[in-house]
Amino acid sequence: VIVPRMENRDEWGKALVTLSIGVLEGFSRKELRKVLKAEGIEVCSEWGSIVLLEKVLRARGVMDTDSKLVALRELNDGRRFSGVHVRGSDAKAYLRATLNAHGSHQKHFEHLCTELAKELTLIEDHLVQTENSASNN
């Protein structure tokens, strides 16, 4: 991951897209659906990887029903609203909110990476549980 060092919206947007490709597209929805079915949970074909991951963590008792994977959702929003050619009120609101919360694109990106690392560790810890259980049967 390359942290954007210049206060350039386009560089920041490209860095978010690159990060999201590595993180969000790295999950297999097919495998996550299998985990949920093994847990006895109905699965909707429309659910994306973030919703599937949240459902797995809820099934494992790690998250309550109101909790969300905030960093993964933030990264997904970043991919949608920070791109070079993205315009409109949602994109402006996203940009304004990130700058208000963090002061700069670089600080936002660094904060997001820190929070993603925590969530990915949580996910890994509880998906490994599934693999270990399956291999013991």
Summarize the structure.
The chain is 69% helix and 0% strand.
Topology (SSEs and partners):
Blueprint: H1 9-23, H2 29-38, H3 49-59, H4 70-81, H5 89-102, H6 105-136
Helix pairs in contact: 1-4, 2-3, 4-5, 4-6, 5-6
Polypeptide structure, described:
By secondary structure, the protein is an all-alpha fold. The chain has six helices and no strands. The protein has helices at 9-23, 29-38, 49-59, 70-81, 89-102, 105-136. Helix 1 crosses helix 4 (70-81) and helix 4 crosses helix 6 (105-136). The mean pLDDT is 87.
List the defining traits of the structure above:
0% strand, 137 residues, mainly alpha
The helicity comes to 55-70%
Poorly predicted regions = none
**What is the molecular shape?**
elongated
Strand % is under 5%
What is the N-to-C succession of helices and strands? Answer: HHHHHH
| Overall pLDDT score | 87
Q: Which structural class best describes the helix and strand composition?
A: mainly alpha
User: Largest sheet at a glance?
Assistant: none
Number of helices: 6
